[in-house]
Structure formats: structure tokens, C-alpha cells
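job 3f2a | input accepted
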Amino acid sequence: MLRTYDRIGSGGHSLGSRTKVAQLNALRNDVKHLGLSPNPAVVRQLIAEITAFADATAKAFIGRPLSRIQFVDLIREDDVRSSMQKIRALIDSGEYRPALEQMAHVIYRVYESHLFEFTRSLMRHTSNTAPDPEAVDFPQA
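job 3f2a | predicted structure (141 res):
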């Protein structure tokens, strides 16, 4: 972690205090090798420290704290992004059934409707060349 910090710093980007990163790295190593502390207050403080570090780093590089970045923001199509933001609002307000229904509509619109259109088109093209089922002699079993 410290090597990565130094490499980022050598590129002209600041991630804050090296001492702070060294402390977080020591905590990371302890958690990795020894597990979390049995003291919940220590764990709660560790989460706050990591979150603050991640927010500051994201704000420095992306312009937003990590806690304000949502995957919905990555959706390119405006109508799909808007639909997903509405679904997020439904989930936040505890309306899970309408949220699931809206998700099903979005999944159909984005993924499955194209498949059905392709299938219909394929059926139209193959139905003109397919032989009449009455004219085909099937072997007797």
C-alpha cells in the first residue's frame, strides 16, 4: 500500500499524509493477519477512517466523494438512467414491489426486447423459405 502511495505521489498526485496512509496500512495488515478487533468501538472508528480516506481520495481524483458516487451515474442512456434513479427512490422509500416491477420493465426494455425483435425478424425471413409442413413426409416410427 505504501509503495502504491509513493508511486502515485511521484506522479504529482497527493493522497494526503503519508503518516495517515502508513497507519491505515498497519491496520489493514493487522485485520488481514489477526482479524477484526473484538471491540466494536474500534471497528466503528476504523470504518470511519477508511471511509474518510476513500472520500478524500475520490474527491481529489473524480471531484466527488466516494459516498456520493452511484453506479446509476455510469448509465449512458438518459431514459434508462432516469428510470434507474426512480427505482432507487422507490427502494429508498421502502416501496420494494413497485421497484422490482420497474426493474423488470427496464431489464426487458434494455436487454430482452432486442432479442424478441431479432427473433421476430428471423422468423419472418425463415417463414418464407420454410417448406409447408403438410408437404413434408416424416418417416413412420
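job 3f2a | The mean pLDDT is 80.
job 3f2a | closed
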